[in-house]
C-alpha cells in the first residue's frame, strides 16, 4: 500500500468511518460516494460505525497469504455485518481457530494491518475481536 | 482543581509463564518466581504494538466519561518501545480518538516513567489554561533480550489518563519529582534490547528515587504514610514495590491492591498507571492515594491523589483492570518469540 | 447485427513453461488458430488480446503492440487491443471480437488470451491475483483469492448444507476429465480423500480445490457467419454473448453465495441465442476453485440455488452425465493462465461441437462458456452452436 493511498483514508480505517445515504437510509462501509440505491438522488454523508457490534457472516482461515501478510498465517479472515446489509472484510483476532463460528458477535479493535517493509511505514486499522464475557 | 477526569487500561490477552521461559534457558523456574515474585507476564498478539495498546487504552478512557476526542487538546504517549524511532505514536492515538487537528501531541521517553511525566505535562497545560483537557498515556511492549533476566518480567500493556479541571474523578493535589543521572538501565539508539546494571538497578536506582520522590511529596503535603488508603509504586517485579512500601512505612493493606505485576509482568511505562487504575477501580470517594513511578536513568514522579464522588458514576463504564487480568491465553515460548518478532 | 462464426482455434499446452516467454506462448496459440482457419496475416482486420496482469507478472504493459509485432502484423498495421477484467479477460476479449464482427465493422478478427505466470514466485502471484479483488478493502486486510472463495464456500455450507465431499468431487471429476486432455496441466486422477487431505490454503479449501498457476495461451479466429464456409466445412457459431458486473467485493452482496453477474450475463446470452439452460449440452464453467463450479452451475440455471453440490454428487455433470461440465478438466486440472482461460473455454467447446475433442468428446449441438473475473465482479457467458442463429 502506498503512503498517500493509506493516509487519505486514515479516518475511515482507524475509526470505521463510513457513509450513509440520507435519502434511503442505507449505510456504507467501506465508504461510498454514490448510493447504489438512489444514485444521483442520494445524499451521502459521513457515518461512524466505531461502536457498532458486528456479526460474523462467514469466515476462512488463511493458511497461504500474499507477500505482505505472509508472516501472519494462519489468520482468520471474515465478513462482518455492522448494520443490515453493511458488511466489510477484516481479520478476527483474539480468537482461536477452533472457536470461530458464523453468527458470533464481534467488536472492533485497533490493530496493525501490516507494514510496507521492515523499515517502511506501519499500517493500522480495525480488526474484530469476539465480545468478552463481561460485555 | 486539576485532576483525573477519566482513565482507561488495555492489556493484551496473551500470557507466558515463567516456567515456559525458564525451560528454554534451562533455569530453575521456582527460584526465579521466588526471586522476582512474578509468575507470568503479558505478551502482545502479533499485530499489537505500543501504538495499538495506547489507542485501546485511550478509547477506554474516552468512553468512560463520554468525552469527545475534540475536547482533548494535548496527547503525550510515554513509552520505551514506540513503533517508530522517528514519527510519533501520539498522532496515531490522536487520529484514532478523533482529536485531530486542534491539539498538541508528542511522544515521551523516560524508561518506565514516561507516562507519569506525560501526566505532569498535562497538569501544567491544564493549570495554565493552555489546554482544556490533556491525555497522558504510558504504554509498552517491553523488550527483554532472549535469556536476560528481564525476559521473565518484560510485559505489555498500557493506561491512558485524561487530565482536566472539570468533572474530575480524582483530584491531583500535588506532584513532585526526584531526578538524577543514574545509569542503571539503557538502550542505545538502533539496538533491539536494553542493557542494565544488574543489582545496580536496585538501591542506587529504584529505591533511592522512589523513596526520594515519595518522601519529598509527603514532606510537601505534610502527610504521614498512615493517612493514605492506597500506595502505588512502579512494579518492575513483585519484590521492589513491596520493599519500597515497607521502607516508607506503608502496610500491606495499602499496597497490595495495586500489585498486578505477578499476573502481567512489568508493563514498563504502563506499570504505575495500571497499578493506579486497579486502585481507582475499587476506591471510594474521599480515598487518598499516593502513587510513585520510576524510570531508569533515573527519576521518580510522585502524586498525591484524592478520589471524588464522581468516581461512582463513571467507574463501571469501561473495562476494569480485573477484566484484563482474567482474560488470558497462554503462549508457548515459540509463539511468544514469534509475536515479539524475536524470530525474524 | 451479423452472425459470427468461429473458423479456427489454437491452444498451447498448459503448465509451467520454463523455456517459453510470454510472446512465444502467445504466438504458439495464435499460429495454430490461423493455420486451423487457413487465414493469412494479410486477412486479419483486428486483434483482441485478453491478459490480466503482464504488467505485474513480467513487468510488460502494451502487450497488444508486442504481440502484433512479434506475430508479424505490425507491418500491416493491424490494430491490436488488450482487454482486462482479471480472470475474465479472455471472455471479454472474445466478446470484443464478437461485437467487432457482429457490428459489421471488421471481417476477420483474431481473439487471443495469454498469461505468463511462472516468472514470479508463488507469494508474488498470490499478491498479483489478489489485485482482482478490492485492493483497499479486501486484499489490504489479508484477503487472498482462495480466501474469498473460501468465505463463499463456508457460507454455502452454512446456508445450504453443501458438504465437503460434494465440493471435493468437483476436483475429482475435473482431474478425471483432464486425463483425456493432452493439453492439460494435470493429467492425473485424484480422489476425494486426496482433495480433503491436501495442504490447506484457506479453510475449507485445500491446494486440490484450487486452480494452479499456469502459463498458456489460446486463440480463435472469428468471421461473419456468411463467410464461414470460405474457411471451413465445420464452422461453429457464437449465437449468444453476455457480460455483466456485480460488486467487486463479496461483502457488498446481498447474498454472498450468488454471483449476480453470472446470472445476468447468462440471461443476456440465453436471450440472444434464443435458448435457455435446458438447451445446453456441454459447458465450460469458471472453476477457479471447486466451490466456484458449484456456484456456476446454480447461477447459470442448471439447478436450483443451493443444489449445486447435490448435482455434482449425483454425477450429472460428469463426462457421461446429462450435462457434462468442464470436459477440458476446467481451470482446476487443465490449468488457469488467467487471461487465456476465457478463450480456452471457447476452443474447448468449439472442439466438442466440431466433434474433434478426441477421447473426451461429448455429443453436443449447443455449448456454453462461462468466464468470471475476480470473485464475480465480472462474468461473461457465450453460447456456441453447430447451427447458425435463425
CATH architecture of the largest domain in chain B, by name, is: 3-Layer(aba) Sandwich
State the low-pLDDT regions of chain B, or none.
Answer: none
The radius of gyration over CA of chain B amounts to 18 Å
Helix content of chain B: 25-40%
Cα distance, first to last residue of chain B? 50 Å
CATH topology annotation of the largest domain in chain B: Peroxisomal Thiolase, Chain A, domain 1
Helix content estimate of chain A: under 10%
Stretches of chain A where pLDDT is under 50 for at least 5 consecutive residues are none
Please compute the radius of gyration of chain A using only Cα atoms. 16 Å
Look at the structure and give the CATH class of the largest domain in chain B. Answer: Alpha Beta
Task: Walk me through this protein's architecture.
The complex is a heterotrimer of chains A (135), B (344) and C (390). Chain A has 135 residues and is mainly beta. Chain A is 8% helix and 42% strand. Chain A has one domain. Chain B contains 13 helices and 14 strands. Chain B has a 9-stranded mixed beta sheet with strand order 5-4-6-7-1-8-13-12-11, sandwiched between helices. Chain C contains 14 helices and 11 strands. Chain C has helices spanning 22-37, 54-57, 63-70, 89-102, 122-130, 145-160, 164-178, 192-197, 228-231, 260-273, 290-299, 308-313, 330-334, 338-354; strands at 4-11, 46-50, 80-83, 109-115, 200-202, 205-206, 216-224, 236-245, 282-284, 366-373, 378-385. In chain C, the strands form 2 sheets. A 9-stranded mixed beta sheet of chain C has the order 3-2-4-7-1-8-11-10-9, with helices on both faces. A two-stranded antiparallel sheet of chain C has the order 5-6.
Amino acid at each position: 500500500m502506498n503512503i498517500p493511498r493509506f493516509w487519505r483514508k486514515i479516518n475511515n480505517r482507524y475509526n470505521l468511518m463510513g457513509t450513509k445515504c440520507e435519502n434511503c437510509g442505507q449505510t456504507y462501509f467501506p465508504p461510498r460516494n454514490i448510493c447504489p440505491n438512489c444514485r444521483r438522488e442520494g445524499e451521502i454523508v459521513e457515518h461512524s460505525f466505531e461502536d457498532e457490534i458486528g456479526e460474523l457472516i462467514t469466515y476462512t482461515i488463511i493458511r497461504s497469504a500474499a507477500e505482505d501478510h505472509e508472516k501472519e498465517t494462519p489468520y482468520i479472515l471474515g465478513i462482518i455485518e455492522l448494520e443490515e446489509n453493511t458488511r466489510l472484510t477484516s481479520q478476527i483476532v483474539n480468537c482461536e481457530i477452533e472457536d470461530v463460528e458464523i453468527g458470533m458477535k464481534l467488536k472492533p479493535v485497533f490493530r496493525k494491518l501490516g507494514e510496507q517493509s521492515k523499515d517502511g511505514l506501519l499500517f493500522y486499522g480495525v480488526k474484530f475481536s469476539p465480545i468478552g464475557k463481561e460485555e | 482543581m486539576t485532576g483525573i477526569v477519566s482513565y482507561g487500561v488495555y492489556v493484551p490477552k496473551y500470557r507466558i509463564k515463567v516456567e515456559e521461559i525458564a525451560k528454554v534457558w534451562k533455569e530453575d523456574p521456582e527460584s526465579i518466581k521466588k526471586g522476582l515474585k512474578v509468575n507470568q507476564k503479558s505478551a502482545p498478539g502479533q499485530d499489537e504494538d505500543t501504538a495499538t495498546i495506547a489507542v485501546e487504552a485511550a478509547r477506554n478512557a474516552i468512553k468512560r466519561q463520554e468525552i469527545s476526542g475534540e475536547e482533548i487538546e494535548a496527547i503525550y504517549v510515554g513509552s520505551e518501545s514506540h513503533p517508530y524511532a522517528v514519527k510519533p505514536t501520539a498522532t496515531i492515538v490522536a487520529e484514532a480518538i478523533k482529536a485531530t487537528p486542534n491539539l498538541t501531541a508528542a511522544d515521551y521517553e523516560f524508561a518506565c516513567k514516561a507516562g507519569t511525566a506525560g501526566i505532569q505535562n498535562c497538569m501544567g497545560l491544564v493549570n495554565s489554561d493552555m489546554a482544556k483537557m490533556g491525555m497522558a498515556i504510558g504504554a509498552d511492549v517491553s523488550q527483554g533480550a532472549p535469556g536476560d533476566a528481564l525476559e521473565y518480567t518484560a510485559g505489555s500493556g498500557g493506561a491512558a489518563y485524561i487530565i482536566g479541571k472539570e468533572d474530575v474523578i480524582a483530584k491531583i493535589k500535588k506532584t513532585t519529582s526526584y531526578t538524577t543521572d543514574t545509569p542503571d538501565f539503557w538502550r542505545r539508539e538502533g539496538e533491539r534490547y536494553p542493557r542494565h546494571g544488574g543489582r545496580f538497578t536496585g538501591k542506587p536506582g529504584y529505591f533511592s528515587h522512589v523513596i526520594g520522590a515519595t518522601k519529598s511529596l509527603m514532606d510537601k503535603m505534610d502527610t504521614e504514610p498512615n493517612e493514605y488508603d492506597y500506595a502505588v509504586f512502579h512494579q518492575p517485579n513483585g519484590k521492589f514495590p513491596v520493599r519500597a512500601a515497607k521502607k516508607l512505612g506503608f502496610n500491606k493493606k495499602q499496597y497490595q491492591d495495586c500489585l498486578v505485576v505477578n499476573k502481567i509482568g512489568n508493563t514498563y511505562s504502563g506499570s504505575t498507571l495500571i497499578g493506579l487504575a486497579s486502585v481507582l477501580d475499587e476506591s471510594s470517594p474521599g480515598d487518598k492515594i499516593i502513587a510513585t513511578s520510576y524510570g531508569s536513568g533515573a527519576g521518580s514522579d510522585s502524586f498525591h491523589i484524592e478520589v471524588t464522588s464522581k468516581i461512582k458514576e463513571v467507574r463501571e463504564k469501561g473495562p476494569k483492570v480485573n477484566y484484563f487480568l482474567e482474560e488470558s491465553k497462554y503462549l508457548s515460548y515459540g509463539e511468544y518469540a514469534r509475536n515479539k518478532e524475536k524470530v525474524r | 447485427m451479423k452472425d459470427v462464426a468461429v473458423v479456427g482455434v489454437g491452444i498451447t499446452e498448459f503448465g509451467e513453461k520454463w523455456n517459453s516467454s510470454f510472446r512465444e506462448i502467445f504466438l504458439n496459440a495464435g499460429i495454430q488458430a490461423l493455420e486451423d482457419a487457413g487465414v493469412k496475416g494479410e486477412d486479419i482486420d483486428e486483434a483482441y488480446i485478453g491478459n490480466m496482469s503482464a504488467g505485474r507478472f513480467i513487468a510488460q504493459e502494451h502487450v497488444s503492440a508486442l504481440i502484433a509485432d512479434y506475430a508479424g502484423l505490425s507491418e500491416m498495421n493491424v490494430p491490436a487491443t488488450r482487454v482486462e477484467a482479471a480472470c475474465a479477460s479472455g471472455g471479454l476479449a472474445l466478446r470484443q471480437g464478437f461485437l467487432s464482427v457482429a457490428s459489421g465493422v471488421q471481417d476477420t478478427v483474431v481473439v487471443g488470451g495469454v498469461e505468463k505466470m511462472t516468472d514470479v514466485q508463488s507469494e508474488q502471484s498470490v499478491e498479483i491475483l489478489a489485485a482482482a479483488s478490492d485492493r483497499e478493502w479486501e486484499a489490504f486486510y489479508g484477503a487472498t483469492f482462495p480466501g474469498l472463495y473460501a468465505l463463499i464456500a463456508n457460507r454455502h455450507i452454512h446456508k445450504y448444507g453443501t458438504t465437503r465431499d460434494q465440493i471435493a468431487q468437483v476436483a475429482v471429476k475435473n482431474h478425471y476429465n483432464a486425463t483425456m486432455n493432452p493439453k492439460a496441466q494435470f493429467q492425473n486422477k485424484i480422489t476425494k480423500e486426496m482433495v480433503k487431505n491436501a495442504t490447506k490454503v484457506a479453510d475449507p479449501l485445500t491446494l486440490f480445490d484450487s486452480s494452479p498457476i499456469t502459463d498458456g495461451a489460446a486463440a480463435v479466429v472469428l468471421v461473419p457467419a456468411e463467410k464461414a464456409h470460405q474457411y471451413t466445412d465445420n464452422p461453429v457459431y457464437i449465437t449468444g454473448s453476455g457480460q455483466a458486473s456485480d460488486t467487486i467485493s463479496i461483502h457488498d452482496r446481498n447474498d454472498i453465495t450468488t454471483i449476480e453477474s453470472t446470472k445476468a450475463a447468462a440471461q443476456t446470452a440465453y436471450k440472444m441465442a434464443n435458448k435457455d439452460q435446458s438447451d445446453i449440452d456441454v459447458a465450460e464453467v469458471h472453476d477457479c476453485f471447486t466451490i466456484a463450479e458449484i456456484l456456476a452451475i446454480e447461477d447459470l440455471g442448471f439447478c436450483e440455488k443451493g443444489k449445486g453440490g447435490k448435482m455434482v454428487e449425483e454425477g450429472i455433470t460428469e463426462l457421461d452425465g446429462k450435462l457434462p461440465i468442464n470436459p477440458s478438466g476446467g481451470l482446476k486440472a487443465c490449468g488457469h493462465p488467467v487471461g487465456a482461460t476465457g478463450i480456452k473455454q471457447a476452443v474447448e467447446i468449439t472442439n466438442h461441437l466440431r466433434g474433434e475433442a478426441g477421447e473426451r468428446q461429448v455429443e453436443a449441438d449447443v455449448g456454453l462458456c462461462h468466464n468470471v473475473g475476480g470473485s464475480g465482479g465480472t462474468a461473461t457467458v457465450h453460447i456456441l452452436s453447430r447451427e447458425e442463429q435463425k
